[in-house]
Amino acid sequence: MTDDHDAICTNFAIVRQFDDPDRVVAIRDAILALDSRAATRANVDQGLETPLTTREAAALFTCLQKNGAATQSATDERGFAAYTFEVDPLEAGRVLTQQAAAIAADSRSPQTDQNDIVEFVATLPGGFEPTSARVRSVPDIASTIRNQVFDADSSVRIANPYFDPSLELVSDLASLPRRGVETHLLTRETADEEGDTRTTLNKMWDLIDEEHRDNFEVRDLYRWDEKQGSQAFATHAKIVIVDERVCYVGSANLTDTSLSTNFEFGVVVEGDIVEGAATVFDEVFEYSHPVDLPI
Question: 116-131 pLDDT, tens per residue?
Answer without folding.
Answer: 789 999 999 988 988 8
